[in-house]
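Study this:
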Amino acid sequence: MIFFFIPFYYTFKTRLKGTFSKFAWVTTYLLPVFIAHCLISGTFNLPIVLSLLASISIIYNSYELGYLYNDAELIKKEAEPTLRLSPCEISFYENKKIYIVLARVFILFLQFSLLYFFFPYYFYSSLISCGLIIFTYVIYNSIRSRANIPLYSFLVYLRYFGLFILSCTFGQLLLLWFVYPFVVTIEFSSKKRFGIKWLAGKVENDAFRFFFYSAGMLLQALLGLFFDTVWLPIFYLNLYFLFYRTFIFILQGKLRG
């Protein structure tokens, strides 16, 4: 049951079980965050890469505290919960949850200490993001309504781009929201439990993302052509996701064929 205590391990154990899921995590999370970092900071030396990796680890440690509560505590209040832990694992959590939380908090303290003293580039943005993730998850896990939609969107945003909140203008941060969190928010909103009739069950992930990023590239081309206002990080991130979604779209078509 060591996965309860180790950052990333819990995510891979409960959310990324298959090979394709792990591949998708690298290609739709890790690589885009690295691309965003390179384009926004303009640097890619070893100390800053280590700072980025340490910050991502902090983000995931914080995120997994929300996962733990969702998987082991919130299920007690739901009529039809999604069960990601076995009865044996839930029993272990119930007996050891104080130690699990204390261990996670202690690891966070160590992570922040290492980041501050050795790789301080993202220290303050990581600190702010960590606090906001934990605070938002407390609210998110306490309600079950359409209010979960903006909270979910904010959590996804912090996971992807929280590291850049002190490096970008408000307008740039908003553009970063459109390049990924907005897309998954639309998909999340289409769940039938939210009762949004014009979306419910009508968003097919791969096709929707392909057309979304195609439209995004067209819009940016028009903005660049007529107004000369294209922010390169958004352009390249949109281009990356368009190529990726095109590849997945074609691949799944071949698999179906």
The two ends are 41 Å apart (CA to CA).
